[in-house]
Every structure is written in C-alpha cells, then in structure tokens.
Amino acid sequence: MIVSIPQCLLVSPLDVLTSEMGCLIKRWRPTFTGHQILSLFLLIELKKGRNSAWHPFIQSLPACYTLPHYFSHGELDFLTSHIRERADKEIARAHQAFKDVHKFCQHHWPSGVDWASWEKFLWAWCTISSRAVYLKTEASAEGWLDLSHTDENNQALCPYLDLINHTSTAQMRAGLNTKTACYEIVTEDSFQAHDQVFISYGPHDNTTLFLFYGFTLPTNVYNSVFFSIEDLTELLEVFHVDSWARRKEVLCQYNLLRRLACSTEGISWNLQAALSVLAMDLTQLQECWRILNKEEIHPALEANVLIMARHLIGTALRMTKQFLADRERRAQMDGPTTHTQLALSLVRDDIGILTSALHAVS
C-alpha cells in the first residue's frame, strides 16, 4: 500500500451539502455540479484564511496552474486545431460555472464578493480539476446536484495524494475501502528504497493530461492523433468517392465517426472501418458489416484502405510539421513561455505519432 487517507479528511459534494453552507446551496436554482460545489467550498475556505482547518492544505497548493485556462489568446494559438477546440470548450465550461457560482455569492454576500473573483474561482476550479480523486457520489446527494454532468459529480478533494506523480505505465488500485473507512492506493509495481513512487491518474493521453492536469509525459502509451469527419470528406475528391450521403448514413448507422485515430502502432479499428466504407463499391456497401467483421475478405479493398490511410496520415504529418515550424519561429521572435513550450511539446507528440503511424501502414 502506498497511502491510506481517512475518509474524514476527504471532502465530497455531499460533505459540502451537509455543512452549514449546504442549506444555502440546496435552495439555490439552477442546481450546481459537484465540481462547482467543491470549487465554492475552496473559495470560502480560502476566504477564511488562517481560520480555516484547510489552511495548511491550501497553502501547499500552487498559486496558478498550467492548464489551458491560464493561457493568453496568443498562447492558445500554439495549440493545434483539435486540441484548441477541446481547450476552448473547457475554458467556456469554466466561465459558465463561474457565472453560476458568482451569482450565488452575490445573492448571499451582497456587501461584496471580491473573494469570489474570476481569478480566484479559476484557481479553485483548476485545483479540483487537477487534484480531485474519483469518488462515486452518494445517492443522498444526487437530488441536489446537476445530474446532466455526471463526470463532474463523482469526485472528492483528498489531501496528500497530489504529492504522488503520474505515469502511464503504473499498475495500481485506488478507491474507498469501506472496511477501513480510508481512501487507499495499492501499487502492483516494485520500488526500491528511495525510489520515486508513481501512480496512474487514469488511461489518459497527453492531450487529456494537458487539459485537466496541466502537464504531459515524454512517453505516453495512450497517445493518439484524432481525425474528424472533415478530414474524411477531403478524401472524397482525391479518391473519386461518390454517393457520400449513403456512405455517411452507413458510418452513422454503425457509429464509426468516433475515435477516428491513429497511434504509433497504426490506425484505430474505427478509422480503418470508416476508410473501408469510403473505399467500398456500392455492391460491397450492401454487405458492409460482413466485410468489416472479416466475414468476407477483399484484398483489393484492404489495399485501397491502406492507400487512403497513407494519404490521410501523410497530409496530417505535413501540415503538423508546417504548423510546428511556424510556431517555433513565432516563439523565437516573441520569446518562449512555459505555456508555449508545453503547447509545442504536444505538437511534437503528434508528429512522432503520425510518423510512426505512417510507417505502420506503409
């Protein structure tokens, strides 16, 4: 066992809802998510200063984070389009959460809510995002939570765990032990005395680690590059693909437009299947599912899929290299920052993945 934290030291949405402040939250509409409730808890504890029982923990936390929420508009331009799109969504989500919480604070503390400014809320929001652990929401709390965002509800603040770093290869188990009433982490890896102990925050690629934790790994077994439906449609003219409406209908029918990705080992099953749908003639399209499940073998079709894959990946690789060269020039002119260096590391990740994937399908 690496660590065992008594449950009484954890703070879940239910703990906040059953506190003195919980009465105010329960009467408030619209309802908050668990993430908002824990952020509000941190804001109020921060406001108490040394009078807060959580003061030592709060003092141990960073003053700011390297999540995309802290990037300037210019620094966000160093993210590739698919990462920028996800970053923009997370930033917008935080802004909406702040509006809801700030309205609540203004209502209950009309004399002034400087302690609940956007800057302080952002710090609290990113603290929860990067440091909360998964903890199933108790059924008794669900009636007071915004259940449209279940991923934001099943979490709790757990002191000390943020001292243990993440690696994508860690073998471990974590969760609440109902017998000991402790949140426990048990490793299945071997460590020598004085070694740094690592745990896993989950099977996250570097994009997810960046968006929610503010860091990346030099080597991450979960890294992938994702493609969009727009990337597929660009293949239509190149390979003279007709009947796009019918093919798109098939792609949607079999849910093949998600996880269109490649990794260092090649292309995902969904991407291979989607390219197969594009490469099929209309007769083969009638037997689409049988062909995708290898119940029928079509060597010429499989060869065409590889040709399409090479074109798709090769085009993405050229564009990503051009993007990197442009942003490196800009960073050299303006001076690199921690944020731009982090963003460029993600671009280099993509280039490495695309290069290996292109080799795998060649």
Automatic annotation (TrEMBL):
MF GO annotations: protein-lysine N-methyltransferase activity
Database matches in InterPro entries: SET_dom, SET_dom_sf, SETD3_SETD6_MTase, SETD4_SET
Residue ranges of domain SET in the record: 12-202
SUPFAM superfamilies: SET domain (SSF82199)
PROSITE patterns for the chain: SET (PS50280)
Protein name per Swiss-Prot or TrEMBL: SET domain-containing protein
Origin species: Pomacea canaliculata
Source species taxonomy: Eukaryota, Metazoa, Spiralia, Lophotrochozoa, Mollusca
